[in-house]
Amino acid sequence: MSGRPLDVLEASIGEEVAVRLKGGETHRGELAGYDQHMNLVLDPTESEEGAEGRSGEPIEAGGTGGEAVEDTIIIRGDNLVSITT
Fold first, then answer.
1. What is the rounded average pLDDT for all residues in the chain?
2. What CA dihedral angle connects 15, 72, 69 and 61, to 10 degrees?
3. What's the whole-model pTM score?
4. Which domain holds residue 41?
C-alpha cells in the first residue's frame, strides 16, 4: 500500500474507524464510503457506545423519549482532524 490518504481510506472500507472532528467530537463506526474530498460515510457498529462531544459527554443519536437510534453518519471532509482504524 502506498500510504496516500485515499489509498488508506480504500483499504479501510468495511472496518471500524474513529473519526475526530475540528469541534472535538469523536464518532465511531464502520467506514462505508468516502469521496475525493474525504467526505465519509459511517455506519453504526455493535460495539459503538456513542460519540463524545466537546465536554466528553455522549452525543445521543436522534430518537424519541430518550431512545437511542443508530443511523448512518455522513461527515464532511473539511471537518476532519483524524481518522483512526
1. 80
2. 100
3. 0.70
4. 5-84
Q: Can you tell me the distance from the alpha carbon of 61 to that of 63, in angstroms, rounded to the nearest whole number?
A: 6
Question: What CATH number does residue 9 fall under?
Answer: 2.30.30.100
DSSP β-bridge partners for residue 31: 42
The torsion angles phi and psi of 54, rounded to 5 degrees, stand at -60, -35
Cα–Cα distance, 50 to 38 (Å, whole number): 22
Domain count, the chain: 1
- Kindly give the residue spans of alpha helices, DSSP state H, lying in the chain: 5-12
Cβ contacts of residue 20 below 8 Å, gap of 6+? 26, 80, 81, 82, 83, 84
Helix (H) or strand (E) holding 41: strand 40-43
- Structure confidence at residue 54 (pLDDT): 52
Q: What is the DSSP letter of 64?
A: S
